[in-house]
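Researcher: I need the complex structure. Ligand is zinc ion. Inputs:
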Amino acid sequence: MAENSSSCIACEGNLVLFGRRLDYEYHRCSSCGTIQLLPMPDEADTALSYESEYANVSHYESDPDRCRASAGPYYRAIIRALRDYGVKGKVLDYGTGWGGLLGMLTDNGFECQGVEMSSEMAGYCRELGLPVKQGDIKAVKGERYSAIVLCTVFEHLTDHGRWLSGARQLLENNGLLITLQPTAGFAGLMGRILGLGSLHRPLPQLQQVFCPPWHTAFFSFEGMKILGRRNGFDLLEIRPAPQGRSGGITGIAQRCLEHVNRFGWYLMDVLWPLLIAHTFVLKKVDFPRETSALKPK
Ligand SMILES: [Zn+2]
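Model: Output:
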């Protein structure tokens, strides 16, 4: 079960109520800025929801073709990162969804395996001939990978530390974890602006950002670095993620924002606040002796 203390899941700092949405509360760490649900949803309940109903909840695109089209820029960004770091061996796509990224990885010559909790989505992928196991990280226990990739999945986990320790066991030495996810900067800024600074006003959904219980945490850069370090990973790089590609007005806004963001990132790098998501590249490292007390339980 996820730990439900009132300290930050990334850095163990103090949490302060940030805002409410539906019957849930998001809290913000006063030390690292990570925004997280408090309490965290129960892991077993969440697993059941993902398995049985996630393919049809409004949070996730229920049409596989539309999903592939809108998330295409994310998939390409992840594949670019794999190439830039020279990944050659087997890749695990964790949280495969309708198989868009897994299909693109295969088309680009990567040997890969997918894992998906939703039985409907996993079944759909298998019908397409994609190698997908239904379940969570335990479904591939004992396997070895050069890299694990997550495309808008890390923000869904309910026990990030335990997941990282499971992921670490699957990776070869120096193996990479590449995760594209919405981050704390944009969520924090927009939550504050659109909530008009009032804790009584519900948080805006912001497209699909504040989506409890599905989105459990928006990590800050500092939060990801500390969380990684505590669980045997070095944060190598933070990349700006592209915008998705929806149709209509949203699509036009996404394209505009992407141009603005390219310029903003060029000028201000990680300080640029209008990026909804970032790609983190982490590397599995040995636990330093002096921090062995911080090893995951
Ligand atoms: Zn924190």
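Model: Summary of the prediction. The pocket of zinc ion is lined by residues 8, 10-11, 13, 29, 31-32, 34, 223 (CB under 6 Å).
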